[in-house]
Structures are given as C-alpha cells and as structure tokens.
Amino acid sequence: MTAADRLPAAPRVRTSSPRLAAAVPLFLILLAIAMLGIGAALAPGFASAANLLQLLKIASFLGLVALGQTLVMLVGGIDLSVAWVLTGSAVVFTALCAGQDANTATACLAALAVGIAAGAANGFGIVKLRISPIVMTLAMNNIALGGTLVFTGGTPSGGVSPLVRGIATGGVGGIPYMVIVWGLVATLAIVAIRYSRWGRRLLAVGENATVAHLNGIANDRVTIGAYVLCGALASATGILFAAFSGSSFLGMGDQFVLPAIAAVVLGGTSMFGGRGGYGGTFAAVIFTTVLSTVLVIGNIPAGVRSIIFGVAILVALVAQRVLTRGEDRE
C-alpha cells in the first residue's frame, strides 16, 4: 500500500443541498417584501423606489462587514473585533485625511493597514497559538478599543474628504454609488466562493481541516487570509461609513456586530464552517435592514430589537442543526 493510498479522500465540500441553497435567499427576500408591506402601512411612502434605494444604501455598509464575517465563518471561525477595528480605522482615516482630497490616498492606506494588521494578528493567534477565535477576537477588540482611545485622546479629530464623501453619499442615475459598489463586491464574492479554487479551499478547511491539510491545502494560510480580508473589509466600511456620517465617532462599529452575525447565520452559513456562501448573507442583510427599520418606525425599543436579533440567530442555528442532520442521513 502506498502513502497516497493511506491518505483520506479529498474533502467533501457541502454548501447544503442545491434546493436549500436557492430557497434560503428567496425566502429571506420574500420576508423582506412582507416587512416592506408592514412598513408601508406604518409610514406611507416606505415602499417607494427612492426609499428602497436608501434602504439598500444603508444595507451596503452592513453587507461589507457581513462579507468579512461570512469568510471567517466558512473556515469555522468568528470575528468579534470588527466593532473597534472599524471604529479605529475610521478615526485614523479622518485624522489623517483632515477633510482634504490630497490626503485621501494616504489616509485610506493607513486606515486599511489597521484592519489588515488586526486581521493578521487574529489569524496568527488562532492558527499558530491555538487561541479560540472568540477569545482571540475579543482580545483584539479590546486592543483596538484601547488603541483608538489613546490615538484620539477620547475625541476623534479631522474630517472626511469631499471625494470619499461623494462616494458614500452620492450616486448616478438615481442609484447610490454605495449600492453599485456593494452589488459589484457581492457578485465577485458569490462567484469566488462558489466557483474559484480559493472558495473551495475556504469551504474545505471549514468542513474538515485535517482532511484538507492531508490533501495539500495550506490551512493556516487560508484561515489567516480569511481574517485579513475580514479586517480589511471592516476598515473599508469604517472609511465609507465615516464619510456617510460626515465624521468618525467612538463606538461607531458597535451597531454592525450582532446584525452582521445574524445576517450570516440567517443566510445559511454554518457557524461551524464548511457550509454556506455570500448569496444567502446578501439576502439576509437586506432582510435585517428592512426589519430593523420597520422596528424603528414601530417605536420598538432598542433592547427589544437586540432580543429579536438574538432569537433570530438561535432559531437559525437550531434550523441549521436539524437540516444538517437530515442531509447527513441522506
């Protein structure tokens, strides 16, 4: 018997059944349409084309954060540091940009470096030091928080350049630039995860890291890469959201953490890795954005909204377990 004969078979990547993979985004879009109907009943004009585009613009920021979260969940991880990585990147961007277009490139690169460094540190701690993803990313979140407070002295400074603000708030032909950007990024992510070698490696590592390694996949490189991309996407979102808001402010990333996780899980990506993709996340981001907006219109307290998102995550996890067992029996 040769060494090759003793190796396990190539990792079986399961993104869930084709029918389920197609049904989840469709179901979420139908729920979003139902929420639009409720919103229209509460506020006339809520379902207008102009308001729908505004909702998509708002969703685009969450969508970018959720993409990063999707990538790390596909390899069986999670990133709880995005809140203050996003905030830290935003304050670095505004401080260095100082409202001048001439400073935009330098400020953007410095801000992106924050996210890339945080992601690389997260990945290194998880794969090399064997630290739990939850513990590692929570620690990184506190490091980013402390670093941001030291950098700002408690008060963010500077300003957003007109160029970046134009991208975050402007549009063409009535369509916001952010919707176009998100659409292009989403298309690239969906295709890459589903059809590229890189995407198959992400899923293989999340499905069974040991088998993936024995079949020649560099698990550590794939996992660290996922966390680096997650950090970079958090930084990019921080830059764009600061431009959308007109300035950076402390805690601006907190609002993205739970909704991003909820969107990924509701979209059908397993928190245990190896199953899912960005198509479901994309639809779930739209649904959660519409839902949260309707809850605000309905004067539902913030605490109750958090409970609703938490329950949604638990329900989605239970549903995933049930469906996974059903597929395994097949």
Question: Can you characterise this structure?
Answer:
With 330 residues, the chain is mostly helical. Helices cover 75% and strands 1% of the residues. It contains 14 helices and 2 strands; from the N terminus they run αααααααββααααααα. It has helices at 3-6, 18-42, 49-74, 82-97, 104-127, 133-152, 162-169, 177-195, 197-207, 209-214, 219-245, 254-266, 278-297, 302-329, and strands at 171-172, 175-176. A two-stranded antiparallel ribbon has the order 1-2. The radius of gyration is 20 Å and the shape is globular. The two termini are 31 Å apart. 48% of the residues are buried.
Tell me the layout of helices and strands:
Elements: H1 3-6, H2 18-42, H3 49-74, H4 82-97, H5 104-127, H6 133-152, H7 162-169, E1 171-172, E2 175-176, H8 177-195, H9 197-207, H10 209-214, H11 219-245, H12 254-266, H13 278-297, H14 302-329
Antiparallel strand pairs: 1-2
Any key phrases for this structure?
75% helix, 14 helices, disordered N terminus, 330 residues
